[in-house]
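Hi V.,

You were right to ask for the full record rather than a summary. Here it is.
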Amino acid sequence: MKKNKAREIIEKALDSLVESLEKGQSEVLKSYLETMSRFHNYSLRNIMLIAMQRPEATRVAGFHAWRKLGRYVNKGEKGIAIVAPMIYKKECEDERSETSDNTINGYKVVYVFDVKQTDGHELAIPSQVQGDPMDYVTKLDNFILSDGIVLEYKSSFEYDGLSLGGKIIIRKGLTPAEDFSVKVHELAHEFLHHSPQRYNKTIVETEAEAVAFVVSSAIGLDANTAFSDYIQMYKGDKETLMNSIQRIKEVSGRILEGLG
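Predicted structure:
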């Protein structure tokens, strides 16, 4: 597959996503966000490529990478095309230095395979939260506070959570899973929506809820959030949609890194 073919797949994926959103269908976006939660360290275009070709993928690697892990790709399996940088080393002109610069010299299409397409040695399975965020609540609290954001709890509060720009208020009495998800939602607002730029309220809420969905899913929570209630938006504007998904990816990654 050539690079232009990869671009065609991404364009087709985006067209399909826009069409589904125009029809008020949230399942396609949910599928992309689920893929994002599993591959949040990948670029947005590679997330879209994986979601379009094998949305059920959970862990991918190249043919030789799987062999190093003691597994092999099953015969007849079709690889998942993604885009990888071509890197070459540029030696430093100063002969006294032993350093060299790694420079990206374009991109190429490579193929990876999902773990279900392989066989061999068993892999270590990371523990799943499965409905209880456990110490992730404390980690999230510490991350919020380390960013200089005040965290306050109120017993009588009309909202589950509220972002005030430098301060997050959470209603007391939420379950641990609800507490975690609501905090991530409000933290997304803190990172994304307190600026002079004005945003459409529907898009603002969709972005925050999508970030909560991605982060909650990534740590193993059952993230059946209400973001689908906000889905009918964008009105066929692919640029706005792509910008929004990129923002969701960046903030989700920032929060997950803070929880690491």
